[in-house]
Amino acid sequence: LKIGVLLSGSGSNLQAIIDAIAAGRLNAEIRVVISSRPDAYGLVRAKEAGIQTIALSKDVYADYDMANEAIAAELVRAGCEYVVMAGYMRMVTDSILMAFPDRVLNLHPALLPSFKGAHAIQDAFEAGVKVTGVTVHFANAEYDKGPIVAQRAVEVAEDDTLETLEEKIHATEHELYPYVLQLIAENRVTVGADRKVHIS
Length: 200
Ligand code: GRF
Fold this sequence. Notes:
Rossmann fold, 7-stranded mixed β-sheet, 7 helices, globular, EC 2.1.2.2
């Protein structure tokens, strides 16, 4: 499975994917890592793993559509079959979604459709939920709303703080994302006519 990873930050999920490939748990190849920020630590991780990196400048990002067109072109040029968002804090728009229909994945640190948005872990913690979790879904034009591929629950313990809950969520993400990518690599994931994801 040839993938392109989009990120904006620390890239711990990129690292989990790199590690899963190295360990033989994931039959994939990361063709390119594209960052919306030139200082994202994820770029360092990619370079250390010998992966091609692209960081788009703020000027390019000032124009959303232009940025998305540039990213789509790079993903196609790199031969990507799937696009994997891993802490990418930008919306993907039509130029990417149309180049990769039902092939753009996102990772969200809550059980969608609960706690959409950029502060999901904190929002869940402050709401006092006893169970939250992690969602992998296909991206579409509506933020955090595409077909759900997989979810894992994470219990909020009595003594959890926001920090310990964050750790649990991230550890769960690091397991779930490579697992889902392997299902895709094995051609076991399809989006049905009902727009629901079916796993065989
Ligand atoms: C993850 O919690 C992911 O769910 C969210 O952003 C975070 C990215 O972390 N979308 P990292 O950059 O992979 O460490």
